[in-house]
Amino acid sequence: MNPGMSSDLREIFHRGQLTIGISELSRMTGVSPRQLRYWQKKGYIIPKNEDEPGRARIYTLKMVIKAAAMSNLLQTGYTLKAAAAQVDERMRPAQTMYHVLFDRYQGFEVADDGQIIVDLGTFDPDPTQELYAMLVDERPKFILKPKK
């Protein structure tokens, strides 16, 4: 395994370390900072540091995606409330996949042949086994190995 890379990826993606400020979010989405603050007041977007009053707002990748998607829907005629609800519903499958992958991700190793093998941790139905995944012909293949 490559534990350094494992913890780096988990920290960046799972802990919400990829962040941007309100000005960058405004530029990326075409939504004014004033409008973004209104969306925040309504509870549609939430800055990562909302519990730190007086500090500049910073947004996670999840909120960037949500704000961009809401902006696109508003341009097609949705109301703000309907756009937020639609985006939340559309993001549910992606959030599930995100948690399945990043909550399970333990790291990876590179096999002698260069194949990347992803460690997905203990196999829940049988805690004596570890679950691994790899791509074979661009398709995922899962492997169980006895726990070390």
Tell me how many strands there are.
6
Domain module tally: 2
Distance between the termini: 12 Å
Main beta-sheet strand count, sense and barrel state: 4 strands, antiparallel
**Strand-and-helix sequence, N→C?**
HEHHEHHEEEE
Uncertain segments are 1-6
Tell me, briefly, the overall form. elongated
How many helices? 5
What fraction, in percent, of the residue positions are helical?
40-55%
Structural Rg: 20 Å
- Per the CATH scheme, the topology name of the largest domain is Multidrug-efflux Transporter Regulator, Chain: A, Domain 2
Structural class: alpha+beta
Strand content: 15-25%
Architecture of the largest domain in CATH? Orthogonal Bundle
Strand order of the largest sheet: 3-4-5-6
GO molecular function: DNA binding
Domain HTH merR-type: 19-89
Pfam families: MerR_1
InterPro entries: DNA-bd_dom_put_sf, MerR-type_HTH_dom
